[in-house]
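hey so u asked for the seq, here:
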Amino acid sequence: MTTPQDQFTDVARRGQEAVTTAMRAWAENVQAMMAGGAGGPSGSPSPQQVVDNVFDFAEQMLAAQREFAKTLLAAGAQATEAAASQAREAATSMTTRTVEATDALTEKAAQAGQAADEQVSGTARRARNAAKG
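ran it, structure tokens below
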């Protein structure tokens, strides 16, 4: 099982990859826009091409962010479940130990009470015998 730290490290790595992919796509779009030459009078892209390229880039960036957010949420949910599971196990263990300790103390108290009863009975018997004698 991977640790929560490993999961968050993996999520961060995936996020960096998503940003790198989006930046690469943006760079390719800019290069295509500059090299395209199918545009206005000076060979620059038409306003329609610029708008399309900007929105294409935004779409790619938004998709990468969505994927990153989903991955982050999944890792967070796994980490939360792992922590909750460990807390449940710790609580169960602590409850078991408390019950066992309480049972042991109850048994010792009962034995001490029985020993005290025997001692009091013996003392009372000796006192009666001394009084008779």
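The two ends are 80 Å apart (CA to CA). The first helix runs from residue 4 to 36.
lmk if thats what u needed
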